Amino acid sequence: MITAAQKEAQKNRGTLFVEDGELLSVEAFPGDQFIMRIRSPQCADKAQPGSFVHLTCDESLPMRRPLSIMRAEDDWVEVLFKIVGQGLRLLSRKKPGDTISVLGPIGRGFVPSPTRPNALLIGGGVGIPPMVFVADRLRKDGSPWRPMACLGSELPFPFELRRSNFETPWLDASIDSAMPLLEDWGIPSRLATLAGFEGCFDGYVTELAERWLASLPAAEIARTEVFACGPTPMLKAVAALAARYDLPCQVSLEEYMACAVGGCAGCVVRVETPEGPAMKRVCVDGPVFDATTLAW
């Protein structure tokens, strides 16, 4: 007889792959930020918004590093990262044509509800990539989705700021900088920072998001859901914002990981379940959780 634990362990069979990926391109941005595109057909085929990959940074380092997937197309995946430590520094030195071992896609992703098509996407720093992936998936699914992205960073954004073509009467007209990729996809976005970047909202990304929510009539609030990824203090503020407006809210947690496949239990967080409090692994039980279930 198969136990519940065995069923839990078997759920990822056929969805998790290890393959030698080929680095297709690498772009460097201010603030030691990099965007890498890696040919990884099996991972790209199964990737979902919110899932991540575990990459080998260098032959000299036995431990992999977890990075959120920003885009997945055809036979490649794209990741954005900021150098934090020697592992990611070595990864940033890779050149197109180099081989990078890819383990993925890992984790439970975001699950938007068609009954709430107003998707508010809130990304902070290296939490921006999952929001881009969600936006990409929603625009490919088409109607009824109407996403709005609020992105924040205290470092220079890892893209050239573009003046938006979308009007935002809920903001001063001077706040018009947007993410070019989202603009090209027909998805409105606005940027927040405390660093004084041109055309950006002066404040926290959660304050920017609340400006948008406050502009919506009650009927549209009832059709809104919140999705977020970023540092824990930001996510805590997002959860509180969603609670004030009585909105469902899914958050992707950022935690240190060793194995990233549920074996080491080094990334556990306390989650409230119908059976009571439980310790859940961010890597495979998450990284996406219902914000109301987390012990902030």
List the helices and strands and how they pair.
Blueprint: H1 4-10, E1 17-29, E2 33-39, H2 41-46, E3 52-55, E4 65-73, E5 76-82, H3 86-92, E6 99-106, E7 118-124, H4 128-141, E8 148-152, E9 162-163, E10 177-178, H5 180-184, E11 189-193, E12 201-202, H6 205-214, H7 218-221, E13 224-229, H8 232-244, E14 249-252, E15 268-273, E16 276-281, E17 288-290
Name given to the CATH architecture of the largest domain: 3-Layer(aba) Sandwich
Q: What is the number of beta strands?
A: 17
Number of H- or I-type helical stretches: 8
Q: Would you tell me the structural class of the helices and strands? A: alpha/beta
**Text of the CATH class of the largest domain:** Alpha Beta
| Helical percentage | 10-25%
Identify the overall geometry: globular
Strand content: 25-35%
User: For this structure, what is the CATH homologous superfamily of the largest domain?
Assistant: Nucleotide-binding domain of ferredoxin-NADP reductase (FNR) module
Mean pLDDT: 94
> Could you tell me the radius of gyration in angstroms?
19 Å
- Looking at CATH, which topology of the largest domain would you report? Rossmann fold
